[in-house]
């Protein structure tokens, strides 16, 4: 779809997101708070999250499973957004955490999430990270290789502990996601080869310090159909059936995550059919189920508020230059991802759309958000970059000497600063210059 064909795309984007609404005077609001008021008080760029949107999505996830008579343990993928306030909202509503490092483990613990409600994933766990997780009573370690299984056994034995583990299986399933977010193919770095899984599980049952409880799988992100998940789960369930037939206990199936969200006004992930599929293929096997959503929960619960710095015109193009760039939101440069961009002012939103390339201020050619159809936007105009709650602030940097943006959480209609805007001098506050150079 070319830019002109997306005339007034912003109206469709907003209509598809319950937390967003127009006000004829105040312009675009998020959870009943005018974004222009947030920008006026806290500046831009600025991350804005909606706690009620996050709670509603968690409730929707639970309700979809409950309709099928299922109640999987929810372990939020912390890597999507690791802010303590976000983790606290989810913890208060009963979610645990899926962590991939000691840093994420410590953050989840600091937010009040019990280690027993955590899953430790990741292909490169260090021995000190494993030791800390076992010592704290981690609920499950997802084992990525035979070598890692040996490490865990040695560490747990030395500590006089036994820790529950799940073998992460690589089912060699092509899920149709972007190459850089696909994780379940034979050539990907994640998981244990399918052909090795049964023998390694038997081996795990004989190891000191190891209590094998089941299998886990995760085939990628931004998946919109239940079919790839079903194919992966059926392969893993075949492993479980084979082990149980030999009298080996398998009690748990970790379903992973990867549910897609539309960054446009397209079709959302088919959550009720997915839950129905899980019941159909796994619901009668007496397995404890775990699900690890990240982006699906928090992505639509956040946006990046930015201001137009200037509009640059050439013979070929209109460039709308924002004060937010790839140092703030890396996804477009990293994955060629496209986020909806909408004007905040009601006056701007009533304008006629024209093609524009939206770019950031960073000195890299890849610092671009893409081609959009936008009204005429004067310097100082505000725009909202939507669905930025996942892999936004968590992946941001201070590249080009650009401080971290402020973060706000709207809690019951009141915006709260949850991270102050970084000051210029904070950019080098922790740096040390040897005395000879001082």
Automatic annotation (TrEMBL):
<dbReference type="InterPro" id="IPR002986">
    <property type="entry name" value="DAP_deCOOHase_LysA"/>
</dbReference>
<comment type="subunit">
    <text>Homodimer.</text>
</comment>
<feature type="modified residue" description="N6-(pyridoxal phosphate)lysine">
    <location>
        <position position="79"/>
    </location>
</feature>
<comment type="function">
    <text>Specifically catalyzes the decarboxylation of meso-diaminopimelate (meso-DAP) to L-lysine.</text>
</comment>
<feature type="binding site">
    <location>
        <position position="295"/>
    </location>
    <ligand>
        <name>substrate</name>
    </ligand>
</feature>
<keyword id="KW-0457">Lysine biosynthesis</keyword>
<dbReference type="InterPro" id="IPR009006">
    <property type="entry name" value="Ala_racemase/Decarboxylase_C"/>
</dbReference>
<keyword id="KW-0028">Amino-acid biosynthesis</keyword>
<feature type="binding site">
    <location>
        <position position="391"/>
    </location>
    <ligand>
        <name>pyridoxal 5'-phosphate</name>
    </ligand>
</feature>
<dbReference type="InterPro" id="IPR022653">
    <property type="entry name" value="De-COase2_pyr-phos_BS"/>
</dbReference>
<keyword id="KW-0210">Decarboxylase</keyword>
<dbReference type="InterPro" id="IPR022657">
    <property type="entry name" value="De-COase2_CS"/>
</dbReference>
<comment type="pathway">
    <text>Amino-acid biosynthesis; L-lysine biosynthesis via DAP pathway; L-lysine from DL-2,6-diaminopimelate: step 1/1.</text>
</comment>
<protein>
    <recommendedName>
        <fullName>Diaminopimelate decarboxylase</fullName>
        <ecNumber>4.1.1.20</ecNumber>
    </recommendedName>
</protein>
<feature type="binding site">
    <location>
        <position position="335"/>
    </location>
    <ligand>
        <name>substrate</name>
    </ligand>
</feature>
<feature type="binding site">
    <location>
        <position position="258"/>
    </location>
    <ligand>
        <name>pyridoxal 5'-phosphate</name>
    </ligand>
</feature>
<dbReference type="GO" id="GO:0008836">
    <property type="term" value="F:diaminopimelate decarboxylase activity"/>
</dbReference>
<keyword id="KW-0663">Pyridoxal phosphate</keyword>
<comment type="similarity">
    <text>Belongs to the Orn/Lys/Arg decarboxylase class-II family. LysA subfamily.</text>
</comment>
<dbReference type="InterPro" id="IPR022644">
    <property type="entry name" value="De-COase2_N"/>
</dbReference>
<feature type="domain" description="Orn/DAP/Arg decarboxylase 2 N-terminal">
    <location>
        <begin position="54"/>
        <end position="298"/>
    </location>
</feature>
<dbReference type="InterPro" id="IPR029066">
    <property type="entry name" value="PLP-binding_barrel"/>
</dbReference>
<feature type="binding site">
    <location>
        <position position="364"/>
    </location>
    <ligand>
        <name>substrate</name>
    </ligand>
</feature>
<dbReference type="Pfam" id="PF02784">
    <property type="entry name" value="Orn_Arg_deC_N"/>
</dbReference>
<feature type="binding site">
    <location>
        <position position="391"/>
    </location>
    <ligand>
        <name>substrate</name>
    </ligand>
</feature>
<feature type="binding site">
    <location>
        <begin position="292"/>
        <end position="295"/>
    </location>
    <ligand>
        <name>pyridoxal 5'-phosphate</name>
    </ligand>
</feature>
<keyword id="KW-0456">Lyase</keyword>
<dbReference type="InterPro" id="IPR000183">
    <property type="entry name" value="Orn/DAP/Arg_de-COase"/>
</dbReference>
<feature type="binding site">
    <location>
        <position position="331"/>
    </location>
    <ligand>
        <name>substrate</name>
    </ligand>
</feature>
